[in-house]
Amino acid sequence: MVDVIRIPKLGLSDYGELVSWEVDIGDTVSKEQVVAVLESEKASADIESTSDGVLLETYVETGEEVAIEVGKPLAVVGEEGESVPSLDELDETAEEDDAQSKPESETETAATQSDDGQSGASASDVKATPRAKRRAREVEVDLAAVDGTGPQGAITEDDIERHRSENGQDSGSTTERSDEEVKATPRAKRRATEDGVELANVKGSGPEGAVTEDDVEAYLESAAEGESEAEPASASSGDLTVTESHELSGIRKTIADRLSQSAREKPHVMGTREVSIEQLERVRDRLRTNHDVDVSLNDLLLHLVGRVLDDLPEFNAHFEDGTHKFIDEINVGYAVDGSRGLVVPVIPDVLERSLSELSEMRRSLVQRVIDDEFEPADLQGGTFTVTNVGVFEMDVSYSIINPPEVAILAIGRRKHAPVERNGEVDFEKVITFSLTIDHRALDGADSGAFLDQLAEYVEHPGVVLDAV
Amino acid sequence: METELLVVGGGPAGYTAAIRGAQRGLDVALVEDGLIGGTCLNHGCIPSKALLSGTGTVHEMETASEMGIYVEPYVDLGEMVAWKDGVVDRLTDGVAALCRQNGVELVDGFARFVDERTVAVDDGREIEFENAVLATGSRPITLPGFGFDADPIWDSRRALAAERAPPRLLVVGAGYIGMELSTIFARLGSDVTVVEMLEEPLPQYESDLTDPVLESVAELGVDINFGEAATNWHEDGRDVVVTTETEDGEESTYSVDEVLVAVGREPVTAGLNLGAAAVETDDRGFVETDEHGRTTAENVFAVGDVAGEPMLAHAGMHEGIVAAETVAGEDPPEARAVPAVVFTAPEIATVGLNPDEARAEGIDPLVGEFPFSASGRAMTTREATGFVRLVAAGDGRVVGGQIVGPEASELIAEIGLAVQEGVTLEAVAETIHTHPTLSEATMEAAEHALGRAIHTANR
Ligand SMILES: Cc1cc2nc3c(=O)[nH]c(=O)nc-3n(C[C@H](O)[C@H](O)[C@H](O)COP(=O)(O)OP(=O)(O)OC[C@H]3O[C@@H](n4cnc5c(N)ncnc54)[C@H](O)[C@@H]3O)c2cc1C
Questions:
Q1: How far is Cα A419 from Cα A440, in angstroms, rounded to an integer?
Q2: A347 phi/psi in degrees, rounded to 5
Q3: Binning pLDDT at 50, 70 and 90, where does residue A113 land?
Q4: For this UniProt entry, which residues form the secretion signal (chain B) (predicted)?
Q5: Ligand 1 atom closest to B160 (CA)
Q6: Is A151 on the interface with B (CB under 8 A)?
């Protein structure tokens, strides 16, 4: 059996450097012989061998900075030729050991519920506010797994709630930031007044989502960067006569925030294609007269988009945390110009609905948006968005992707255009489709494929729609 | 070297005796082996109160949302401890300066009796004295098997210097030190469990005084298990596993990161060679003294913790003054009552007799109480728990008082004065107290005892 030399309880600070290995791999060592020296800012400590044998492997190099966590493996001692566990294997056995070493007594109660088991980092090494520590214990969250946003990078209670909701744990106590009143600390308010910052524009990271002085500072810094990059000659409306001004709030502000974030973060690329809709209109008419199915062109287009998404799953996807995630459900968002601005209700599982069902659903969603009676749930779960800019008499639109989706399709207005068929030029009814893609996840070729497939279905609807 | 008064030990009892001796014209030398200020300044009263107020601020911030203030403090305990050390340093420097200003000769070293008139200091010097005051203090008691030299076993001194709050702390002992330190660490977010051999905390106090404290530590998440004695411990991986046993032999185990043993204090007499000075100790090792602090040796006095209960800094200081004045041939002041305080939240403070003790002394006590829940000031500080109780003899003279609640440690002083000077309930009741203050509660308690309280129902 090999024996792992681990970092013992040292009382050193969080990080240190492995200053030297006192023995080389292959050397014989005896128990309690000093094998390495660790040094933190304040002090150094000798690491002793835990048994007699040969130093088989070291996991940390001389000069390497290491997190000084109790139990962290440094080296392995054993008999010559014995096989050495990898760091991953050690991590696993450490977890098992932990599980086994828990005493099985009734009164161990709260005393064993601490959270430093999994990661190897002792929980006392993780910076967290007292409130966060208590909360972590209560909901059994491993502090070492949570990112801290508090003072000194400490984990706050909010961080724990965020971590839980990100991990699908019910959080219950996260507080939604209300936009009517901006929450800010007294210091932040003073600072904002001093520096003429509109608090509503600053994102709060404090308790209850309050804007802190740090937030104001960060905002000022980013504003300064922005200005120096591209400050137009007349950047401000200072000398002009403002007749009306509306501070963005509510849904408008959410749209603004999300879309500007999308535009900022996603490299948008647009492609367009003009497609004849003569056939599709005929199909719509036949459905109405022969089958008594009252569908609009929009409904048919939504269905066909669903088909394309089924064929090309890379479009039915999210892009988050550097990951392109293909999604099974095809839930198509349909942008509507509601009374409070652009709203994108979602039609879930587009392909699982009959055309009339789809049509009914779209109409009722649109109505709800217009009547301002939609629910937040109506807007959730979209995997792709379609926006009809034809209603504004536009042919094409460079639409911004609804994050975290990876593409958006704009449907232009119907118009007559010259179409060449077999050497003859004729006027046909066409629509220009503009597809904007997130270039991180998709390429121009994908764009081409999407529009090609869509054109195929729109121009030859019989391929996919039976009984018409 | 020769001196009229030799003081051994520079804690509150010792330095007070030295300074008062010098003020009374004696030629005084003070031998201190460690840090001037003793336990109190360096590892006891002051550091613990510093951390209680530091963590009290944390607690106030965390509960401030009741008042519409939202903050979530992060505590760098290392920095808080450094701040505390700064406070301690300023105080110890101050005490050393006071000693010098009063002409006390400070001798650095460990003193050992050679005979009834001589001590040897470990640097080889000998000091001949006419009178000596022993003020060598006390140190924490270890439990069998729980030596403080083991890494995870803390004494109070170690706990007060901790730079990190352990995720899980087991406190052995629910006396005042255990309760104060549990409060500190619970406020820092540690998961604190207390085991106490007896069936109640703070055994010298009545349960109506300790109940509010129990409630408040429970709110902090401290779990107290009574009737359990810690018997042994071992390390199991990263856990320290402590075994406890009830009187019926039932065992439990606790897995924690650190263990604080706070089960009492014992006198420091080892190495003093008391026999050479003919100074005798009782069966617990405390030096035996009369009311002036005189030991079994005519010219040797003992004050402070080394002379036994009450082991409190202010008691030691008073004893130091009494001993010094006795040596100087004066008539020393008599203490009629020694206040005692537990600095938990709420605080408990007592002085003199409680109703039962009064009865035991043949007094048919007049008792008055005023609850802080009826105090406007208490409500504005969000600490409206507890009460003030006054106990008076039949002739109306105040003989004692008990307080549990906000600022009890400060409020007890007025009752202390009343007991010391034999002030009557009438006098307390008729004294105009500022409104709105917590101290009004004392006045109201006096009126209640007299059956004419304004702000609480009379019996
Ligand atoms: C955690 C804690 C909190 C406390 N809180 C409070 C409180 O809030 N209020 C309160 O009233 N009391 C409190 N106390 C108790 C208080 O600290 C003691 O009652 C007080 O310090 C006793 O004073 P002393 O002078 O008798 O002894 P000490 O303060 O113990 O001083 C004795 C001194 O003698 C020195 N010495 C010992 N032997 C020799 C020798 N042979 N030669 C030379 N020097 C020697 C020691 O180094 C030491 O400095 C607390 C104690 C602790 C541990």
A1: 34
A2: -100, 110
A3: very low
A4: none
A5: 1
A6: yes
- 8-47 in chain A: CB under 8 A from chain B: 9
* Whether the predicted pLDDT of A26 surpasses 90: no
How many Cβ atoms from other residues are within 10 Å of residue A140's Cβ?
10
Residue B147 burial (C-beta neighbours within 10 Å; 0-12, 13-18, 19+): exposed
> Do A150 and B74 count as a contact with CB atoms less than 8 A apart?
yes
Choose the mutation target among A12, A107, A152, A205 for the interface with B, i.e. most B CBs under 10 Å. A107
Which residues form ligand 1's pocket by a CB distance below 6 Å? B 8-14, 31-34, 38-40, 44-45, 48, 110-111, 135-138, 156, 177, 268, 272, 304-306, 311-314, 316, 343
State whether residue B273 is helix, strand or coil: coil
Mutate to test the interface with A, among B61, B238, B250, B253 (most CBs of A within 10 A): B238
Query: Does B189 sit within 8 Å of A132, measured CB to CB?
Result: yes
pTM: 0.64
Q: Is A145 exposed, middle or buried (0-12, 13-18, 19+ CB in 10 A)?
A: middle
Q: Are the beta carbons of A114 and B190 separated by less than 8 Å? A: no
DSSP letter assigned to residue B171: E
- Strands B153-154, B258-261: pairing kind: parallel
User: Which regions of B272-409 does DSSP assign to beta strands (E)?
Assistant: 300-302, 340-342, 347-352, 366-371, 387-392, 398-405
Closest CA to B11 of B157, B154, B138: B138
DSSP letters for A141-171? --GGGS---SGGG-B-HHHHHHHHHHTT---
Q: Which two tokens stand for residue A434?
A: 């503009």
Structure tokens at A19: 């200053």
Please, are residues B169 and B45 in contact by the beta-carbon 8 Å criterion?
A: no
> Which has more confidence, A241 or B433?
B433
Nearest to B255 among A102, A158, A207 (CB): A102
Which whole-number Å values give the CA distances from B136 to B18, B20, B112, in the listed order? Answer: 13, 18, 11
- Residue A380 binned pLDDT confidence (cut-offs 50, 70, 90): confident
Q: Complex ipTM, two decimals?
A: 0.73
B223/A103 touch (CB, cutoff 8 Å), yes or no:
no
Q: Do A111 and B237 touch (CB under 8 A)?
A: no
Q: Are B17 and B102 in contact (CB under 8 A)?
A: no
Please tell me if residue A431 touches chain B, with a CB cutoff of 8 Å: no
B263-292 per-position pLDDT tens digit: 999 999 999 999 999 999 999 999 999 999
Is there a contact between B348 and B396 (Cβ–Cβ < 8 Å)?
A: no
Query: Chain A residues with CB inside 8 Å of B165's CB?
Result: 124, 130, 133
Give, for B229, the enclosing helix (H) or strand (E): strand B229-236
Measured CA to CA, the distance from residue B437 to residue A404 in angstroms comes to 59
* Known catalytic residue at B433: no
Peptide bond into B346 cis (omega under 30): yes
Helices marked H in A347-443:
355-370
3-state DSSP call for residue B441?
A: helix
SS3 B154: strand
Identify the CA nearest to A208 among candidates A225, A227, A185, A192: A185
Residues B217-246, buried b or exposed e (16+ Cβ, 10 A)?
Answer: beebbbbbbebbbbeebeeebbbbbbbbbe
pLDDT at B238 over 60: yes
